[in-house]
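hiii, so i know i said id send this last week but things got crazy w the move. better late than never?? heres the sequnce for the chain we talked about at the cafe, plus the structure i predicted for it. fair warning i was half asleep when i ran it
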Amino acid sequence: MRHLTEIRWVLTALLLSFAFALAGMLWHPELHLRALEKPARMAFSVTVLLAVLAVRPGRKALWWGLIAGAMAGAVFICYQRWSLGIERPGGLINAITFGDIQLCMGMMCLAGVLDFKGRQAVWPALGALAGLLGSVATGTRGGWIAILFAAVLFVKYGHFLRARAAKALAVAALALMVSTYFIDQTGARERLEQGVTEVKTYFDGGNAYTNVGVRLELWKGALMLAERHPWRISTTGEIEAELAEEVRAGRLQSFVLEAEHFHNDILQVLVYGGVPGLLVWLGTLIAPFLFFARILKTHESASPAVTAPALAGLLLVIGYFSFGLTEVIYWSIMSTMFYAQMLFLLMGLCLNARDEGDAA
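okay and structure toks below
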């Protein structure tokens, strides 16, 4: 209850998401109860925050867990890619989801550099590199946008990296992230050039049945459907029927009917929930982002115990927003729960560290 004022907007955003899903079920009784699963689980993840505030676990457990997870993931995915010869490995899940979560863990490791002293700071830096390597090995391109946003955040909040070693390691990690483009074995340059070629081919009227071409055609279709009903909650059956109508009219190519989703979180929510659904979804990103940004703004001279988890929280939020620009990152329950539980975990660590600082 002591922290309710600070966390109220995050709680409100997630409760609104659940209420909106419930409203959709009341509006469309034919919807299955599973439509409530993700928003309900995200809202119930507040129990993670309660646990952190009550048990007050050490932050290092999180950092070492992220480091170990990123390194183990990198070893496994690299084994699949270069030993087993799998072109788009994904561990035991989807390649894009694996690559995005792997990169997200790596970026949060980079924030953990603030919380390590001396030579120990090399470990979170290695975790950051492992996260990048694991993401690159999957062949996922959407995560590269997140790296650009992460660089902007580190420019904005670079003054928190007070130790020279921490600054050097952070800069080295970011530089090595960019250097993967120039290493042929990573396939990063090939994937980027392939993407540029597919974009040109699509707009020149050539073969659209490519990875990028399919996304562009789906985005085109999503905008068409959103224009039809900008304020309405729609069901999967309604959306499939409308897409089929656009295909029959020759305005969309038939392969859009094979896709499970629109490969963009913003368009996915806009099509199925209209403008109200988009605003509710944006709240689940904006409210947490403002929470962590406020922590950093109001604690300029705070210890790394406060700033490290706050910066990790910003990287988590901006990472998921970036991933959603070319993929529906919330499609998987695994990636959805990673976001919600990690979000409340980092919020709890920030609040605990700030309380300890105030008591000192």
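btw The mean pLDDT is 87. thought thatd interest u
miss u guys!!
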